[in-house]
Design a protein that fits this description.
The complex is a heterodimer of chains A (about 525) and B (about 350). With about 525 residues, chain A is α/β, with parallel strands linked by helices. Chain A has 22 helices and 17 strands. In chain A, the strands form four sheets. In chain A, strands 5-4-6-7-9-8-15 form a seven-stranded mixed β-sheet. Chain A has a five-stranded mixed β-sheet with strand order 12-14-13-16-17, sandwiched between helices. Chain A has a two-stranded parallel ribbon with strand order 1-2. In chain A, helix 7 runs antiparallel to helix 8. Chain A starts with a helix and ends with a helix. Chain B is α/β, with parallel strands linked by helices and about 350 residues long. Chain B has a domain of about 220 residues: Rossmann fold, CATH 3.40.50. In chain B, helix 2 packs across helix 7, helix 4 crosses helix 5 and helix 6 runs antiparallel to helix 10. The radius of gyration of chain B is 22 Å and the shape is globular. The chains are: A alpha/beta (about 525), B alpha/beta (about 350). Strand 3 of chain A pairs antiparallel with strand 12 of chain B, so a sheet runs across the interface. The complex binds thiamine diphosphate, iron/sulfur cluster and magnesium ion (MG).
């Protein structure tokens, strides 16, 4: 850390933590800039007692090696993180060879960069070896669970989302269309898809979010797997058109990479506060399917799944991810396309004399998709209420029926989704509930508490609307339930309306930051003790 | 790359009856929309496009009900968004002949942004604006084309909004095709629409339409039979700009602006009269023509029609090229691209 990062991040370190600072950067000027002064110095006795501070000469050592290797100062400075990494490797008893191999792959075309990075990494490691204090500060990190066999890569959530949509396009045989308008932190979904014309991706950068979703609705009418990607304020703009998509019952995937709101809010920070907007943000009775990804890598599967449900059930689907997932990078076990589930769009048959625009599949309640250009299926769709045969209708009974049918279609998606699962102590007293992008911290908190013998269990939701059919059965089993989310309790409110018999407390954080394991454990312990 | 025509040709000759739908037309009797519908129904057989591939997209307004009255695929969408929806339809399937119908409010108030961007992109769309200078469906509020000072339901003391001239808007957005028609001249409207359909790129046809309930006679000053020939000019490509009952009036450029002159008076001969060139790239004269009113006759016919590679063409060319040379041919290629490693 340099003075500025120390100032803003020290609050996240637990007492007793080991803090590595780059002592070369602690100049008077930098200290003052960071807001330190004589009365408020970073290295007080109190602080030295609370933390183990390693004052490493990161910059000067790195520059010395850079000099030796003939690299300019700028290039050398870029390697400083390797020095710190070397210290961490020493402290955690890790070997350097994996990172060496990574560097060789990453900079295959730049052998001097490889050599420099390797030398700096080694120097950091050796520096730590010479430090007395390090010998009492070795952290043993247990071997990660054996990884499933297969081919792996790194992937960010936004790229995974884009690829999931591409995969769904290939599986369904429907061309992929994305109509979008740039917005942080969702833009990279569009940026990624724009690269893949060779895979048939048709990307349209629209004049605004409304045109983004409207072009997607038009594309869906014309037979594409149509998507639009955005973040909170953009989703607000799309509301009216989403209602149209509900009314015309066309497949549509809306990806909302959530950020801090309301309004422009905290564009670069994460939050889960668009849930209500996704569930309810339209005029009229306008149900859509809502689902949420829970890791950067599984954005791939949830995007695929969102497209599958949209195409097979003829409905708009909102996929919620968030800035933390979207920008975060994770190991991704590469699937084989042959192993991905089939997607069977409900295409109408040309010249079918019995085709009616709102004739429904008796099992799913999905209507059929008749595409302009198909012979003998000319029809009209639109935002006005229609009767099942297609023509406009203002008949009161018909409206009631159509509203019920559109709702029933969404409800019946529940017949196609797996049961909700619970992990952790089978006799738990406290059930932790989470959804979307928070599963990492929540799972870890519950696992750690289980190891400590605490009676906690965890259930994580990806399907939000409809909920898995066994949701009520699960919730009714526990005396204490806490719903944890990065908003003011939107999922908790949603669950309460459906399961009023289940008392729930809630744990919320709206600071633009993800959950920390420590704060979660503290809250769960408090609830257990109550 | 050579221009392609993406829409399949008709497999037989169609007539107006082939496109007439079985739905009851609900416009007020005497509404100008009836005549525009008739003109459109006469246009489709002339476009030679396969019927199943014709797709009507509209917004919301009296005029936007037109998809019900045409026996093609149709999308009666939401207020202002027809251009955006049509853009997606055409992008997803360039083999469709896409027709956008909008009112003046639909296209230039709530949907103004989509209109100018659609025009700027020059995608292959056929846009018709039904300009009755009023909000018809919502019963008579002023629109972006209502004349300055006019009393309407929401301007009881007269509007203080300066109106848009749709032609200027289209040309300001680098439009490649703009024409103006009159509801009471269906053959001219059909002619214009047929030419619009043949244009590669976005075409905008403004039809001056009478809403006899909420803005009756809005265009009467130029459309009344008694004055029409003197108050309008029908522009024809390559021909002198002549108008008037006696066909003795013409337009000339006096170095500052356009002026109406009489042939045979003050030594004016036919040689002094300007020739209309609809394909002049510069918008200057076309703008002046679109703006004519007052002492100058209102211009009808195809005012601007220039060649510029359409967005549709450019998009399909890029797709084709990338499909041919792109590194990834299927998802397995992409998934396994770049830095990957095996875990045993
Ligand atoms: C979002 C939204 N705002 C407002 C309306 C109400 N509305 C319907 S049509 C219309 C204006 C119609 O005028 P115009 O587009 O000129 O069409 P016309 O009826 O004159 O043909 C308005 C304001 C609406 N349907 N939707
Ligand atoms: S209100 Fe006016 S525009 Fe609407 S149908 Fe009647 S006459 Fe035509
Ligand atoms: Mg109008």
């Amino acid at each position: 850390m340099n003075p500025a990062s120390l100032k803003s991040n020290l609050k996240w370190a637990k007492k007793g933590a080991t803090v590595i600072v780059d002592i070369d950067t602690f100049t008077d000027e930098a200290l003052e800039k960071a807001g330190y002064n004589e009365n408020n110095h970073p290295f007080t006795d109190e602080m030295e007692r609370a933390y183990t501070i390693i004052k490493a000469p990161v910059t000067s050592f790195t520059q010395r090696i850079g000099n030796e290797q003939g690299a300019d100062k700028k290039t050398a400075d870029r390697c400083r993180n390797m020095f710190a990494l070397g210290i961490i490797f020493y402290a955690t008893h890790k070997k350097l060879d994996q990172t060496f191999a990574y560097l060789e792959r990453k900079f295959a075309k730049k052998p001097d960069v490889v050599a420099l990075n390797k030398a700096v990494l080694t120097e950091g490691y050796e520096y730590a070896d010479k430090l007395e204090v390090m010998h009492s500060h070795i952290f043993e990190i247990a071997q990660a669970d054996k990884m499933e066999k297969g081919r792996y890569r790194n992937i960010t959530g936004n790229v995974a989302t884009a690829w999931g949509l591409l995969a769904a396009s290939e599986k369904s045989g429907r061309r992929l269309f994305l109509g979008s308008y740039p917005i942080t932190p969702a833009t990279d979904v569009m940026v990624e898809l724009a690269k893949h014309k060779s895979l048939g991706a048709r990307v349209f950068q629209a004049e605004d979010e409304i045109a983004g979703i409207c072009s997607a609705i038009g594309a869906s009418y014309a037979g594409a797997l149509a998507c639009t990607s955005t973040s909170g304020p953009g989703l607000s703009l799309k509301s009216e058109a989403l209602g149209l998509a509900v009314m015309v019952e066309l497949p549509l995937v809306v990806v909302d990479v959530q950020r801090g709101g309301p309004s422009t809010g905290l564009p670069t920070k994460t939050e889960q506060s668009d849930l209500n907007q996704a569930l309810y943000g339209r005029n009229g009775e306008a149900p859509v399917v809502v689902m949420a990804a829970s890791s950067s890598a599984n954005c791939f599967y949830w995007a695929f799944n969102a497209a599958k449900v949209a195409l097979e059930h003829m409905t708009p689907v909102i996929l919620l991810t968030d800035g933390y997932l979207g920008n975060g990078s994770q190991l991704f076990r590469i699937p084989k396309m042959a192993d991905m589930p089939e997607i069977k769009p409900r295409l109408a048959t040309p010249n079918d004399p019995n085709y009616r625009p709102f004739r429904r599949d008796p099992v799913t309640f999905a209507r059929e998709w008749a595409l302009p250009g198909m012979e003998g299926l000319r029809h009209r769709v639109g935002g006005l209420e229609k009767c099942p045969d297609g023509p406009l209708s203002t008949d009161p009974e018909n409206h009631a029926l159509m509203v019920a049918n559109r709702q029933e279609k969404v409800n019946r998606v529940a017949n196609y989704i797996p049961d909700q699962e619970v992990i952790g102590d089978p006799d738990a007293e406290l059930l932790v509930v989470g959804w979307g992008g928070t599963s990492g911290a929540l799972t870890l908190a519950v696992e750690e508490m289980n190891k400590e013998g605490k009676k906690v269990a965890y259930t994580h939701f990806n399907y939000i609307c409809p909920l898995p059919k066994n949701t009520g059965d699960i919730l009714r089993k526990y005396k204490k339930i806490v719903v944890c989310e990065l908003n003011n309790g939107q999922f908790a409110g949603y669950l309460r309306t459906q399961f009023p018999e289940c008392p729930m407390t809630q744990y919320n954080k709206i600071m633009g930051l993800p959950f920390e394991v420590g704060e979660l454990k503290a809250e769960f312990e408090r609830l257990l003790a109550k | 790359m050579a221009e392609k025509h993406f829409v399949p040709k008709a497999d037989r000759e169609y007539t107006k009856a082939d496109f007439t739908s079985d739905q009851m037309v609900k416009w007020c009797p005497g509404c100008g929309d009836h005549a525009i519908l008739a003109a459109l129904l006469n246009t489709f057989p002339k476009t030679n496009h396969k019927k199943e591939n014709i797709c009507m997209v509209s917004g919301i307004g009296c005029s936007s009900c037109i998809p019900y009255y045409v026996d093609t695929y149709g999308f009666h969408s939401i207020h202002g968004r027809a251009c955006a929806i049509a853009t997606g339809v055409k992008l997803a399937n360039p083999a469709l002949s896409v027709w956008v119908s909008m009112g003046d409010g639909d296209s230039m108030a709530i949907g103004g942004n989509h209109l100018i961007h659609a025009v700027r992109r020059n995608q292959d769309l056929n846009i018709t604006i039904f300009n009755n200078e009023i909000y018809g469906l919502t019963k008579g509020q002023y629109s972006p084309t209502t004349k300055f000072g006019q009393v309407t339901k929401t301007s009881p003391y007269g509007t203080i909004d300066y109106p848009f001239n749709p032609g200027e808007l289209v040309m300001g957005a680098q439009g490649t095709f703009y024409a103006r028609a009159l509801d009471c001249l269906p053959p001219l409207t059909t002619d214009i629409m047929t030419r619009a359909a043949k244009h590669d790129g976005t075409s905008v046809v403004e039809v001056l339409q009478n809403c006899m309930i909420f803005n009756d006679k809005a265009h009467a000053a130029i459309t009344d039979r008694a004055v029409r020939d003197d108050r309008t000019i029908i522009l024809e490509d390559g021909k002198p700009m002549i108008f008037g009952k006696e066909k003795n009036k013409g337009l000339r450029f006096n170095g500052r602006c356009l002026e109406a002159v009489t042939i045979g008076e003050n030594g004016i001969t036919i040689d002094d009269i300007m020739i209309h060139h609809e394909d002049t790239e510069d918008t200057g004269i076309h703008m002046m023509l679109a703006r004519m009113s007052g002492d100058l006759p209102v211009a009808l016919g195809v005012i601007r029609n220039v060649k510029k590679t359409s967005y549709t063409q450019l998009y399909e060319d890029q797709m084709e090229e990338q499909m041919a040379i792109g590194k990834y041919k299927c998802m397995d290629d992409l998934l396994n691209s770049g830095d990957t490693w095996e875990v045993e």
